[in-house]
Amino acid sequence: xxxxxxxxxxxRDRLEDAGVTVDAGNTEHERWRASRDGATAVxxxxxxxIQGETPRKLESLLRESGGRAHVYFDGASRGNPGPAAIxxxxxxxxxxxxxxxxxxxxxxxxxxxxxxLITALEAAAEYDYDELHVRGDSELIVKQVRGEYDTNNxxxxxxxxxxxxxLSRFDEWSLEYVPREVNDRADxxxxxxxxxx
Length: 197
Known about the structure:
Layout: E1 3-5, H1 8-17, E2 22-24, E3 32-36, E4 39-43, E5 47-52, H2 56-62, E6 68-77, E7 82-92, E8 95-107, H3 109-126, E9 131-136, H4 139-146, H5 154-167, E10 172-177, H6 184-196
Parallel strand pairs: 6-9, 9-10
Antiparallel strand pairs: 1-5, 2-3, 3-4, 4-5, 6-7, 7-8
Helix pairs in contact: 3-5, 4-5
């Protein structure tokens, strides 16, 4: 449940500018509340709390745009191909901004890694960061996206193009390989999604 410490009047203006209807609060402590896409933002004196299954879009409207973020991604496949899942985390100087995981059906490990990268980049794009530093523990995917390795598989080539297009939305970006222990949160989220299946 994201909690955003902010000027709640300015946050209300941002929501209204984006076409979100803002209603009065339900209690004397609530300043206002607004709902969109399965999530509800509730404002208090100096913070907004977002509840619901899909808080990302509301959260991206409420957070200040710009700035720098770090993204960690991981895909996992049991069987290669086999049941597959993804995990991703967006981190700033304020801590974890967003994270997610999901089962993606049957896929190879490389397909799962690309799916995780693309999903993480789409989430980061919604927050409108200026600078993005992306890290993953698949050296192959990192080097393919950076153009250091060729991609012979047509499906992976298409995913590489999608990842590059998403990265180009940021003023500055980097993509680097890190050992699994540095990527443990995204790795854990991907495996958690697999375990739930």
